[in-house]
Amino acid sequence: KSLLGEHKKHLSSSSPPPTMKSLLALCLLILSASLLVSSSPHLGKFGWKLHFKSNQGAPEEFKAHILPKPSDSAVDSDASAIKVNLEKSNGLFAFEETFLVDAGHIEHATFRLNFLTRIPVEKLNILIKQPSDSEFKKVEQVPIKSWFGMSTLSKIPSFTFEWEKPQNGQWALRIESETEPEKIPRVDIEGAHHPDIVLLLENDSPFKVMSHVQSYTFKQGQPVGLVARLYDERKYIQTLRTLKGLNDEASYDEVFAVTEAGESLPLPEAMIPSDGANGFDFEMDIVFPDGQEKKVKMVDEALARGENSPSGVYTATVKADQPGKYFAEVQLAATGPSREQLTRTTQHMFTVVSEEEDLSVVDGAFGEFDPEDKMVTIHIPLEAKVVTNIVGERLKAYAEVWGGNTPVAFASGMTVVSQQSDKFPGQDSVVLVSLKVHANWITRANIDSQNAEFTLRNVYVQDLSTSVPLASADKIRLNIHKNQRALLQIHSASNAFNGEITEEMKKGPRPVRYSKSQRQLFAGSNNGHKIVLSHGYCAAGIPFSTAKFENFAEFDDPNQNRNNDEFAQLLGAFGEQYDSFSLVAHSQGGIASLHLLAFYWSALDLNEEHGDNHRWIQAMGTPFQGTTLAGWGDTGKIIGVGCGSNDNLTPEGAKLWLTGIPMEARQHVYYYYTEYKPWSWCSLPANAVLSWPNDGTSESKRVPLAGGNKVLMKKGFCHTTDMKYPPQCKDEVNNEFMNKKAARK
User: What is the pTM of this model?
Assistant: First the structure.
């Protein structure tokens, strides 16, 4: 209706009577409107009509869509965290604690004591007692001020003290304040408050803890937990050098440079306690969604199985009896090879889905072939625990189509849960999700449609907002009625595959709204083409300086924490006002841009050309594989500020999300990232948490996108403002380059 109104307004603005061309255009527009209605697009959360893509691809791509191993999202740390609350004592508000330092025996090593707090350092009296001291001494060095977090709006102010070649052993810390700190209530625990200070104790040490979630079965009522090990980074790097055929002097950066984006590397060898099973003390500290906190001793996997020798790999689980966000921490106290005492911690955050989303795949999918659009609709049956709450929900699904032992293609994308009709009589708890695959894939694979035994393999369904797997199956039958098989056979006989994999074979038919003919017919009537600039997570506004951009528009959704799908819908809805658009996006904005292109038809698909000089999506500082910082939840929330946690940005959430992104979409992404200069940093406290090198928020090793196009890595720029080096989005040389390379029509 609005399209017709716009055309009517366009006609009334000119004095001559309607020409044959304009009348023809109006007829086509009416036809388009009717076809749009008949295609029944789904209404998104923000009012934008969602036209799902039917993603498909060749068997060569199957391995890119296998659900990741939990160890692929492992994080590591040579630091430990302590939460501090100042208590009234002798007229002061004070805190006293001992801690272990173990970096002293390492050449050129430094110990850093990072304070994350809203209390200014000038209001604190900080005293240290080193192992050789008989009493506390005031710390006289000038602190290095910085901040810690994932955005400027969720940042925690910080200051850091450093000791080069520190004494190994037990240190003591005393913090004093004459004034009572502001107590900020926690929303999750009644009567509790956020800590006044979080201490990050960082040792420049090769002895690190690596941990990962035990599985991705984040379902209410199921066990959830962590797996951890202590390892020697020096030995691990040597293992990787050997694996990559590099010499013994190759640095970690050189190893990283020859590692494929998203490549699954072997885990490091776990260190074994020198005095048997009692040498390492691993504990899992987990906070439930209601704020309840529980500590569980982690046990050696081999000893738990009854074996005589320890493996050095420790695990612990709890029952996830509540849906919602869980924050889990590995805490280690251990004795190192040189009898040094050490402590380490790692952080994880994940969401457990409600039992109402508890699904399981039922054997016996069925297919329906439509000769008109040449698509086979595949209906996958699921057993639902609560049918009424799941019907109508949007999920993501994936399946490989096989004819006998011949792989045909994969089918994936968005799907809406529907109630089954008569295919499963008497099974009221069975619902359906549907995918589509083009019949030409069957022709291409030389499948005898009338006699082949069709199956679906590697079937899984994911939650939309978190990408948590809700149901999966290794293999199920795909039943196709004999009449449908006959039609498929006729199609194959009359449509010999000519070797070209068409757009419809990769994405399904275009909705009329996004057809190239419609764009050409009404080009210029919808504000033309724009380069859309986008921010990322919890941003105050557009981070790019705009002086070097031409014909651009600013997408602005300030101070918000969106999951990838919400973010993508907003970008798509924003782009509707233009004939077409390309994207230059920062941080999570790059992820949302790829999500939009992968799952929904939009004006982004109306770019006429693509390639090196017509880039649809350019992403700056985007952690396509997540960031360790997100495992802390919203870092600002630790002391009561910030936008909230985001599953999609954790290493676990990002890996699960990437599994559903087809290579067809990834090839349109051109990514850029930055790092601090050699032997430097962007955020000192973030360096205690992130793998090196990084930009203060995103780790370089987690930026690369398999199937995407790496453009450049530039040193001397950081993720955002108020870090040691200028923000990456203010690099005018690079901005001018991105403007030049952006798709323009």
Answer: 0.91
